[in-house]
Amino acid sequence: MAAGQRTVIENCAIATVDAHDTEYASGHVVLAGDRIESLGAGPAPEGLQDVVRRIDATGHLVTPGLVNTHHHFYQWITRGLATDHNLFDWLVALYPTWARIDEPMVHAAAQGSLAMMARGGVTTAMDHHYVFPHGSGDLSGAIIGAARDMGVRFTLARGSMDRSAKDGGLPPDFAVETLEGALAATEETVRRHHDSSFEAMTQVAVAPCSPFSVSTELLRQGAGLARRLGVRLHTHGSETVEEEKFCHELFGMGPTDYFESTGWLGQDVWMAHCVHMNDSDIAAFARTRTGVAHCPSSNARLAAGIARVPDMLAAGVPVGLGVDGTASNESGELHTELRNALLINRLGAHREAALNARQALRLGTHGGAQVLGRADAIGSLEPGKLADLVLWRMDTLAHASIADPVTALVFGAAAPVTASFVNGRQIVEDGRLLTADEDAVARTTREQARRLARISAQG
Questions:
Q1: Do residues 77 and 105 touch, judged by C-beta distance below 8 A?
Q2: Inside any domain, residue 446
Q3: pLDDT per position as a tens digit, 389-418
Q4: In a designed cystine with 281, which of 55, 277, 290, 302 is the match (CB 3.0 to 4.6 A)?
């Protein structure tokens, strides 16, 4: 919408996910340009000027848009492979294929990943891309272009690897960068694409892949680069028992202590998974305000374990939700992670007290915004924040007999998305994308997946 033009949404239940968890059984939201102008109980105020659209949202729940905090888009074209492997075996099985990706493949995979998330209520996405084969083209540009065209708010975590098989790492030698090359390319990506403004649609983070695929020097210098450029830092941490064993054998300490020794704890850092964390690790994350991207489906798919999310939240650790790459979460949807986060955490030590429906929704909205460093702009419905919100239809067969709409959204089947707005611009209507041809995206991703499979088979 142009500045000053208003959209009025009325007759809906609203879960604001603000600091007080304010909710309205029947209320309104007024969007003005790219901002939320007002919201509250009952109908919208009379006499509003420049109203270009009114939406009767009877039977709907309005929430902040979902915020995805960890993903690997390129994996969209390698779904359904190595389905019975743990993390290290899975990586060894798939790295030879991933090492042959190129720009057309990455662009198609990004379209598929973004489309699946957006049609399911994601308004802010991120991609941790760390595979840059020699001569593969402008992969970062392809990913950012796909997000721009889809109309989704986006953070690219520009990843890197410099520890290959010959150095004791897992990736093939031709799939890694040099230390100097990785740092230079990361800096160029930040300078070309990062927008630090309040309403930014594209941001960039510095994101060496993991302790077992990057050198200590890449971690240390990467942290220095991020802080010199004023951007956030992201990596994988404490995902598996094998990773913890690796860190003890190679560095003489566990992952959290190792990260702290390289400058990788702080309020500008978030890490994916964090499954195997002891009390001391959680205390260190809480003390430094280091964030966590919790990926329940992927953790289960790879048999990594159950992250101690209730303990992290109780300690004050910022926690958001992540899809993770779709080679370890084939559905690629974040709204299903609300339910999976709640259910899987109830299998842990806290049982039925682990998480409730509203805590799960907070993880997927405000928690994600915190982790990405954007809680001032997104993640809750409040006047002055950016107009990123979702209308979930709750009056169909799947949910109509559940009285509480938030419970219905989290505990029930995946709810239909009637409308999704980013910056006040509608990008989904009645479960279909308005910014892309879903059938064309499906065809392209299938073609590129088959092309990659052929190239990989040829060695």
A1: yes
A2: no
A3: 999 999 999 999 999 999 999 999 999 999
A4: 277
